[in-house]
Design a protein that fits this description.
about 80 residues, mainly alpha, 2 helices, about 0% strand
Length: about 80
C-alpha cells in the first residue's frame, strides 16, 4: 500500500464510506503498525546491539533498511 498511492486512496475512500473515517483509519493503520513492529523486532535480533547507545541508533537504520523512508545515516566517532 505504500507504493500504490492510488490503491490506498481508493481503499481508504471505500472503507470510510462503509466504516466511517475512524474505522478506515484503524483498518489501515493497525496492520501497518503490527508489520513495522515485527520488522523492527527481527532487525533488532539480527543486529544484536549490546550497548544502549547502539540500541538508540537502530531506529533510523531499521527505518531506512526496510524502505519506510530515506534516512541519511552519518557515522560519528568519539574518543571515549
Amino acid at each position: 500500500m505504500i507504493i500504490a498511492d492510488s490503491l490506498t486512496l481508493t481503499l481508504y475512500k471505500t472503507l470510510s464510506n462503509t466504516n466511517g473515517l475512524s474505522g478506515a483509519d484503524q483498518i489501515l493503520y493497525n496492520p501497518g503498525k503490527v508489520a513495522r513492529m515485527a520488522d523492527a523486532f527481527r532487525f533488532s535480533e539480527k543486529s544484536n546491539p549490546e550497548k544502549s547507545k547502539d540500541k538508540f541508533g537502530i531506529g533510523p537504520i531499521h527505518f531506512s533498511y526496510f524502505g519506510w523512508g530515506c534516512e541519511n545515516i552519518v557515522a560519528i566517532h568519539s574518543n571515549t
